[in-house]
Design a protein that fits this description.
Length: 357
């Protein structure tokens, strides 16, 4: 689906880190990785964490979210977005998504906004930027907007990278992401104060001036030096990985463009997707599971979309959201690894088209 691109540069970077003995989060490579990532996103602060899920949880805690609060998230997202909210005790409220971009919009958020809403987490699904600006305008200053940018490294909205659009952004470096550290994540923001608070909380909330004095409950959400060393080596590839993803998406569109009823994810005006994962909606009435199995028999791995959050037992107080349900029924994610060639994509599309006649 999306194998990592790892070469000698990554091997050398990790080996050097091990040889130096600085494998812990105190390694200078963590700071360097943070600085490079902040510069890449165009923000002043980047805080490395042990996963995207940890990053989302930490931001919510740092911003004071908890019991009695409501947090709006898309009904179509990976469960981690919802789980991070649930860890804080706040209530998960799902908004439906747009049938073209597959993201929440100011209109769908407005339908579930209440006096108790304290945060909205737009997700840039599969790398496609959501309208963070429009959502910020709708909710006003009292509600924080946190980007779940776990899937959208390098995606741009009206000239700004995702991760630089909300109060904070959260990225994942899981092995299938555009760049990876195996597991890992990064929080981006512009506020020095928030950056400081995040660093404090992620390291067991230890008083920076009094060792082993902890005035609050903290977390161990640290990234290791070895992971950061790998991350720095991956940052050097990010431009070429992004170009590869764009190329692959173009090829899929070229080879499937005349297939009636098949739909691609659309970018709203001003949005430039990173095309992390190329996903399609199969023509209405086609049995997605049958297609998945047929392709699997040809050696082609695909993935269904996420089960809508409202369909999961722990979040089922949310009513069904019809567009998210439709996307789940018809959606299929196609192989999107950066190493795919034009020929590979042509062959995948040929196999898919054969099953759709
Ligand atoms: C939309 C979304 N949010 C959050 C996460 C969580 O990131 P991680 O797996 O690094 O905890 C993912 C991850 O894979 C994701 O796709």
């Amino acid at each position: 689906m999306a194998e990592p691109v790892l070469g000698e540069a990554e091997v050398r970077a990790v080996a050097e880190c091990v040889r130096s003995g600085w494998i812990s989060p105190l390694s200078s490579s963590v700071r360097e990785f943070e600085e490079r990532f902040a510069a890449y996103c165009g923000v002043s602060e980047a805080v490395a964490v042990s996963s995207g899920t940890a990053g989302l949880h930490l931001v919510l805690v740092a911003l004071g979210l908890g019991y009695g609060d409501e947090v709006i998230i898309p009904d179509m997202t990976f469960v981690a977005t919802a789980n991070a909210v649930a860890y804080t005790g706040a209530r998960v409220v799902t908004a439906d998504v747009d049938p073209r971009t597959w993201n929440i919009t100011p209109e769908t958020v407005a339908r579930v906004l209440t006096r108790r809403t304290k945060a909205v987490i737009p997700v840039h699904l599969f790398g496609n930027p959501a309208d963070v600006e429009g959502i910020k305008r709708l909710v006003g200053r009292k509600v924080v907007v946190i980007e779940d940018a776990a899937e959208s490294h390098g995606a741009v909205f009206r000239g700004r990278k995702t991760g630089a659009l909300g109060t904070a952004g959260v990225f994942s470096f899981y092995a299938n992401k555009l760049i990876t550290t195996g597991e890992g994540g990064m929080i981006t923001c512009r506020s020095r104060g928030l950056g400081r608070r995040l660093r404090f909380l992620l390291d067991q909330a230890m008083d920076p001036n009094r060792r082993y004095y902890h005035p609050e409950i903290g977390f161990n959400y640290r990234l290791t030096g070895m992971q950061a060393a790998l991350g720095i080596a991956q940052m050097r590839r990010i431009k070429s990985l992004l170009s590869a993803k764009h190329r692959i998406a173009k090829w899929y569109q070229e080879f499937l463009k005349d297939k009636r009823g098949l739909e691609f994810q659309q970018q709203q005006s001003g949005a430039e997707s990173s095309w992390w994962m190329v996903s399609i909606l199969l023509p209405k009435g086609v049995d997605r599971r049958r297609i998945e199995q047929k392709l699997k028999r040809c050696g082609i791995e695909t993935r269904p979309f996420f089960h809508p959050i409202s369909s999961l037992p722990m979040f089922s107080k949310n009513p069904e959201r019809p567009v998210a349900r439709q996307l789940f029924t018809r959606g299929l994610t196609l192989p999107s690894g950066a190493k795919l060639s034009r020929k590979d994509v042509q062959w995948i599309c040929h196999a898919l088209r054969k099953e759709l006649v």
